[in-house]
Amino acid sequence: MFKTIGCLLLLFVVAMAQSNAAQTGADPIRQTLTSAVRNVRLETWQVNSSQMPFKTASAWSIQKYVLHGGKQEGVDVIVLNSGKLTITVVPTRGMSVLRVESSELVLGWNSPVKEVVHPSLINLQNRGGLGWLEGFNEWMVRCGAEWAGHPGKDKFINNTGDEAEMDLTLHGRIGNIPASEVEVIIDRTPPHRLRIRGRVDERQFYGPKLELWTEVSTEPGSTTFRIEDTLTNYSAYEQEFELIYHANYGPPLLEKDSRFVGAVKRITPFNAHAAKSTASFAQYVAPTKGFVEQVYMIEPFADAQNQTTVMLHNAAGDKAVTMRYDITQLPYFTLWKNTTALEEGYVTGLEPGTSSPANRSIERKAGCLAKLKPNETRRFMIDVGLHTNKDEIARATAAIKALQGSQQMQVSAQPVKVE
Amino acid sequence: MFKTIGCLLLLFVVAMAQSNAAQTGADPIRQTLTSAVRNVRLETWQVNSSQMPFKTASAWSIQKYVLHGGKQEGVDVIVLNSGKLTITVVPTRGMSVLRVESSELVLGWNSPVKEVVHPSLINLQNRGGLGWLEGFNEWMVRCGAEWAGHPGKDKFINNTGDEAEMDLTLHGRIGNIPASEVEVIIDRTPPHRLRIRGRVDERQFYGPKLELWTEVSTEPGSTTFRIEDTLTNYSAYEQEFELIYHANYGPPLLEKDSRFVGAVKRITPFNAHAAKSTASFAQYVAPTKGFVEQVYMIEPFADAQNQTTVMLHNAAGDKAVTMRYDITQLPYFTLWKNTTALEEGYVTGLEPGTSSPANRSIERKAGCLAKLKPNETRRFMIDVGLHTNKDEIARATAAIKALQGSQQMQVSAQPVKVE
Amino acid sequence: MFKTIGCLLLLFVVAMAQSNAAQTGADPIRQTLTSAVRNVRLETWQVNSSQMPFKTASAWSIQKYVLHGGKQEGVDVIVLNSGKLTITVVPTRGMSVLRVESSELVLGWNSPVKEVVHPSLINLQNRGGLGWLEGFNEWMVRCGAEWAGHPGKDKFINNTGDEAEMDLTLHGRIGNIPASEVEVIIDRTPPHRLRIRGRVDERQFYGPKLELWTEVSTEPGSTTFRIEDTLTNYSAYEQEFELIYHANYGPPLLEKDSRFVGAVKRITPFNAHAAKSTASFAQYVAPTKGFVEQVYMIEPFADAQNQTTVMLHNAAGDKAVTMRYDITQLPYFTLWKNTTALEEGYVTGLEPGTSSPANRSIERKAGCLAKLKPNETRRFMIDVGLHTNKDEIARATAAIKALQGSQQMQVSAQPVKVE
Question: E strand or H helix at A212, and its extent?
């Protein structure tokens, strides 16, 4: 029923050899790192390409360890090094992606929050429902899943079947829930995809029964990676949900004259303050003390397969990130511009979502709230590319412009949130 | 001042042998598993009947271990196997009893909460004071001790001596407080009773000074077990308290046509919704999507020694649980019927308590709130029997009917909670 | 990137020898116990004077360990034994000082809270914002740093740049934040000062960027010790802050006819209740059931170097504590008299602070709220002396009386908090 914690590398390699003999060779290699069901948590574990019975273009490794000290005591971290990218995933914080690095580029930002804070030390209800900000420093944190937007009152059905009122907290709970199941999967067959998977549950009696399986994966030697999640409703009832992929960028991608590039069907400022600067929504300023966040809701154009691509590139146009995804999965895109002083967190968010980040009650009224039927599963996939080549970035820009074509961008004069 | 954590089995056996020599042989064997006072926490420990200097009818064992993964990381669990019953106690969650199993019967239910959630990850104030539901999956969880009922505002005396207002949270805090002292006691003398004891403190400056010593015990080979608790008020002042033994049953005891059997002096529906179905309070339906909980407050009849017995049996009448207790200790019995869809938690609660589960302010007004004088201790004892024999169940039914005799059940038309 | 946890004593000694050879001998010996930056946390560690390459007047030792059991599971503790004083520091609870003991005297009190409670089990928002009281049992706990006073609503600037309202909780957060960096420093040169240092961060996105470096230090054989802290604002903006050194005394210093001795320029009762007893503010009563706290705000006189001394001595005048500090650093002194029944916590607080313990909104209005400019650092230093000699205490009394001289104590008739 329970297992000794420790480095099981040797057992793993032996098991691999045995399974090699016994199997067809087509089944992927699987290693459980955490399992609440099987009562497992490996504190440390690692594997690398030299231990594999197959060769890959690049040497790669995957390493699991635990953070120590201060507010990060006991936080699990998994580092996947593809040979080109180093992707750091935090199972304890809802499988968030802390940082992605290549030799020339880093996806992430310099938050005033310096530690990877353990959820047991965060009270989401702090500061009028803004407690989430006490742990916010990831490149990508999922907001959701029962709700994903701004704090404030909303209704729910309580245990006595009555409509009651509760305080929603900023961006929901999923980013502060430890993953219950975590595993590494390595494909035996080319291109030998490397996957870190984790299941994060928002389950409660008289509440949601949502399970989110997350996956971050890449291939040895690749400069792109994929986020591929599935959300399932295990309730007997239909369940409202919201999911926002809150991907955050600081320098070097964000600087004076960096640009957002997207194929925009309609843009809506979040509030009157943002409405004043809608014309310059795609441009960025240098770190500016006193800058107040500007938030824009964007409906993008997509191709015949419903794929759209958004891009952020630096001033010189020689460093960029692209995010490609299906707009039927994630119809609402939020552009969050927070180009404040460096000390405060100079950052922009490119955030595909199932809804806008307004309070759930507003999204419900606007008809923008997604629902899952009992046992229904939805899939969400984002391909992220790191680019450090001018030609590549020019081609990506051209492809996005082609999505826009001659179609005009519509600007909603009316902000989402009327004050 | 502090001790190495580890398996102290060897030391334990040696100590036993030594104490055997030095003692009269009548003192029980004691093993501390956790002690905040002595700075001890054994992560793993086990003992079994073959290591004892005496023979018992059945082989038995007691095992302590720690849960890993997700929300249950670091949760302590003790499993007592009496040879007939397996009783799982969770020190980290207030000495709750997670599950009781025999070869033919299980006491417990299938909650949507799948993990044994660590209290550090639960905010009782969530969802308008319903955060308790995020960890609710035990066979028996104690509600209490400063309050045990529904959430809502109630008054208290603050540090400046003024009456202030606070938000009570559902079912109180005791089920989410780690036990400060945990020990196993094994009687050297027949019938060699096996006890798991734990002390859970609700102590705070300018607040309650309540200590609850809990005990779950059984005998080798027995199909009954006993819960025996004492609650002491270490304040200089009189202290209000509430304690409800929230014992929960799903299949196989709960199914279509299962029945509750009790000697009922008076029954009061909790609200207008429950009042509509008072006539069928003792019968159960199959899992029913959309079913809204029905709650009934029952004053039972008792024998000359103040003992009453309540029973839940399945449709066939060949599987049952009985709970026998003193109505002067636990005068208010709550029957909670929540025969909703399986995914939502198909469950019924048989809940002896010192009060009803209404908000403490309501109980106070109704004069149903118990108090402890300074240094006063109250004792609470429940004998639980597992029955898998028709004749035995028929005899138990007859005994309960004898308590009722020719006395009529009174039905209060007026619900406890007027809406 | 990460380090094995364990006793690194051997490495430490070797490192000392090496550094001795390589250095001038003047650099102090440093040992990191916790570092979030370097991913280090030593669970156990110890050092003592016999391992040093120098001799000291008294044998001394420093020991780090982890508490186990109940609510204190995983709490780090450091015990510094100077030969004369034993000082217990709790890194996990904001570097609070749990207790200071000499052979004849103890600084501390007997709180109803018996365990050293892990912050992950405390919800500061409990009981209408009084959750802090669930862990309150230290000799000295710092209140602060974003706010330090009574609970209640106050304004703040939220993410959208708007003024919003939040619930402040009693005495702020810093006492329940684990230290991110902890180190021991031992001076190689006489008088071989022994220091325990720790950094506690109140950092958050859209919130404070405060870092508090704390230090508790003494010399081998000394009966005095020093608290020396620095608070730095790493925000781009000016930051309000409050810091109160909540030092608490029970028996033997507190008893019937104990006395507070201070040079008082002005005294202001906190509320109408305290105002009734201002005349006897310096005297103490025996444990008194039903006693309601009396709180007085004191502006002390100081010498030409801005130093003031306050003292608490027992009835016989043969045991005393003195606290000496700079009134330009800590202009507001709070005297908290809580001479209630022993079970409830018979205690008095001598509390130098940057402000009074009223809600921050009141302090702001009164113009008593300190601010730090961007990158500004303030220093706070308190010298604490333990005295068990009548002559010594008489001399300290005379010195305090000299500060007062012929100057009259002014009494404010109007309490701080008008009800």
Answer: strand A209-218
pLDDT band at B1, cuts 50/70/90?
A: very low
Domain ranges of chain B: 102-411
Judging contacts by C-beta atoms under 8 Å, the chain A residues touching residue C35 are 69
Tens of pLDDT, residues A282-328: 999 999 999 999 999 999 999 999 999 999 999 999 999 999 999 99
Per 3-state DSSP, chain A is made up of helix, strand and coil in percentages (nearest 5) of: 15, 40, 45
Residue B279's φ and ψ, nearest 5 degrees, are: -60, -30
Distance in Å from the first CA to the final CA of chain A:
56
What tokens were used for C350? 């001598």
What is the value of ipTM here, to two decimals?
0.93
Contact (Cβ atoms closer than 8 angstroms) between residue B232 and residue B211: yes
Spatial contact of A207 and B137, defined as CB atoms under 8 Å apart = no
Structural element, H or E, at residue B198: strand B194-203
Q: For residue A361, how many C-alpha atoms fall within 13 Å in the half-sphere facing its CB?
A: 13
Compare B164 and B109 and report the one with higher pLDDT. Answer: B109
CATH architecture of C101-411: Distorted Sandwich (2.70)
In sequence order, the β-bridge partners of residue A89 are A78, A97
How far, in Å, CA of A45 to CA of A62, rounded? 8
Contact: B68, A5; criterion CB under 8 Å: yes
Q: What is the nearest CA distance from C248 to chain B, expressed in angstroms?
A: 13
Using a 10 angstrom Cβ sphere, with 0-12 exposed, 13-18 middle and 19 or more buried, the burial of residue B3 is middle
Topology annotation, domain A9-411: Beta-galactosidase; Chain A, domain 5 (2.70.98)
- C97, C79 Cβ separation under 8 angstroms: no
Q: What is the pLDDT of residues B245-278, one digit of tens each?
A: 999 999 999 999 999 999 999 999 999 999 999 9
Cα–chain-centroid distance for residue C217? Answer: 13
Q: Is the CB of residue C134 less than 8 Å away from at least one CB of chain B? A: yes
> Residue A62: which of A241, A256, A195, A223 has the closest Cα?
A195
Strands C264-269 and C410-411: parallel
Nearest residue on chain C to A118, alpha-carbon basis: C120
Residues of C in contact with B178 (CB under 8 A): 70-71, 73, 121
Average pLDDT, chain A: 93
CB atoms within 10 A of CB A263: 22
Q: Does B207 contact chain C (CB < 8 Å)? A: yes
Calculate ∠ Cα B149-B150-B152, nearest 5°. Answer: 125
Q: Can you tell me the distance from the alpha carbon of B136 to that of B131, in angstroms, rounded to the nearest whole number? A: 9
Within 8 A of A35 by CB-CB distance, chain B residues are 69
Structural contact between residues C175 and C75, judged by C-beta atoms closer than 8 angstroms: no
Q: Give the mean pLDDT of C70-79.
A: 98
User: Is C315 an 8 Å CB contact of chain B?
Assistant: no
Distance CA A285, CA A271 (A): 20
What is the pTM (predicted TM-score) of this model? 0.94
Q: Which CATH architecture has domain B102-411?
A: Distorted Sandwich (2.70)
